[in-house]
# Entry
Amino acid sequence: MNPHSDETWLRLLVVEDDPVSAAFLRDAVAALPARVHVAGSLAEARRAIDAMPFDLWLVDAHLPDGPGDTLLDARGSDTTPALAHTAATETAVRDRLLGAGFREVLCKPLGVVALHAAIRRHLRAAAGNDTAPPPWDDAAALLALGGDAGHVGVLRGLFLQELPYQRARLRAAASHDDEAGMRAELHRLAASCGFVGAARLASSVRELQASPLQPDVLQRFEDAADELMGGSGEMGSA
# Structure
């Protein structure tokens, strides 16, 4: 079968009325790769849903003809995972959207890496294959560092020494609802996770970048950090 045939491509619905945001989301989602249908209103989205099946919906919380969560009101037995995206950062807004049935609330501005991570996470869950990545990905670390296992070991040692301080800074920023401070720390941590192959922590960092102040996401980061800090970081220890 052609790997790029309609049968094998993901099909995602993006509901966004702002032309610039819609273009960004369309191009970012298409790079998964996926086929993307863009709707600029609830009415357009409903027509699209009636006309074809989708693997996931990505819905703006505020649309010209009503709140985005009203799209979920009449879905009946449809279990397509739906993610909301919004510029609002208030906890009450996030809680309302989650209560309406969205699987996750993504805060704008949204980076491509965080967007892809969220989409893949919920597609895996919908398929019943929500397997967490390993604590350490030796192959990825070796690729990043030119195949030098000794270099990987040294950098992992430094990484594990610094991780408690990075976690403390993230906790402090979270306790003060300092989203900018959290994002700055997460940006640095994401890069170092990539170099040393800290796969599970990297996944939790991407989740936090998408939803920095969400308690359950923060807890997954804490769990992943605890797991790494309780191990040796030696090659083959995943």
User: Anything to note?
Assistant: Strands lie at 10-15, 34-39, 56-60, 62-63, 66-67, 82-86, 104-107. The longest helix spans residues 149-175. The CA atoms of residues 10 and 167 lie 36 Å apart. The chain is about 55% helix and 15% strand.
